[in-house]
Request: fold
Amino acid sequence: MTARDPEFVAALRHRVAGKVRESEPVARFSTYRIGGPATVLLPARAEDVGAALTLARDAGVPWFTIGLGSNILLPDEGLDALVIRIGKGLDRVTQRGESWTVGAGLPAPLAARRTAEAGFGGLHIFVGVPGSVGGGVYMNAGCHGGDWAEVVERVTVVDETGQDTVLNRGDIPFTYRRSGLEGRVVLEATVRLRQEEQKHLDEAIAEMFEWRQSGTPFNQPCCGSVFKNPAGPSWKQESGPSTAGQLIEAAGLKSFSVGGAQVSPMHANYFVNTGSATSADVKKLIQHVQGVVHERFGVRLEPEVKLIGTRGEYQNKE
Ligand SMILES: Cc1cc2nc3c(=O)[nH]c(=O)nc-3n(C[C@H](O)[C@H](O)[C@H](O)COP(=O)(O)OP(=O)(O)OC[C@H]3O[C@@H](n4cnc5c(N)ncnc54)[C@H](O)[C@@H]3O)c2cc1C
Reply:
């Protein structure tokens, strides 16, 4: 059975309070604006996620979680998997002293602003990272020298048993851009923040924004960094070529395109959809860039963007 099966869709609608959309173009849930139709669940509450996962398991239907779709390349053919889109309904924020609990569906830039406006630093660095809290934790997203692993105290997840589990920081094997939370859906995260002087936070946010604006093609669909940096985080690194972007630029590939996918003329580690890009175009561009960089510098670039197959499977090797 697949998630497109009318029987599965009917059973799902019966179990959840959220909306179930059939043949929904998933391109609208990806910042690349690429991806064909799928059955999509928009959970209205955390319980919907557990119910959907157990139903999918029992029916033998694969599933895939999407947050704000800012780090994924979805298939042109669409998905046979059930797509669970975590957003509104799982976006509450609560605070107890320095401990903040943020829902997985909350956009990270909003979490950054809300906590910073209350005088707390730690999440403020994510003000320009256009993902969700859940996607950030799952990816261990990071920037400006920090990442989610640094602030997380505990994370509530649910798996195919439908049961919520609270994982303490020490139980989560965070590494560079990875949490090890495969097979689970993040429902919320509790982070420990630090009280900081408001002026300092405002200045830091303004500086980060300026840095982002000057180097990000915000006016074109893209998914941020396509490749991991071979040597880890790179912010404000002075010499090169050593980061993925520097290597691609030094290989003369800025503005190189395949179909509607182009290496951004602004930032070589960002590939943009110039309007008509398909998933196949982006994959071909990735392969071409990997080949040229390997030939020129002997470095094998590994995609940071998650390449997703029609059953919701990851096509990148981890
Ligand atoms: C302009 C731009 C700038 C960016 N800058 C940065 C940056 O500086 N640093 C950085 O690290 N990233 C950056 N990114 C990439 C991206 O924003 C982050 O990786 C982000 O955290 C992904 O969150 P998301 O909600 O969009 O996840 P998605 O793209 O929706 O999903 C990414 C992965 O997380 C999984 N996932 C999503 N939500 C959940 C959940 N609730 N539970 C379990 N798994 C989940 C998905 O299944 C998928 O495997 C940038 C992207 C863009 C477009």
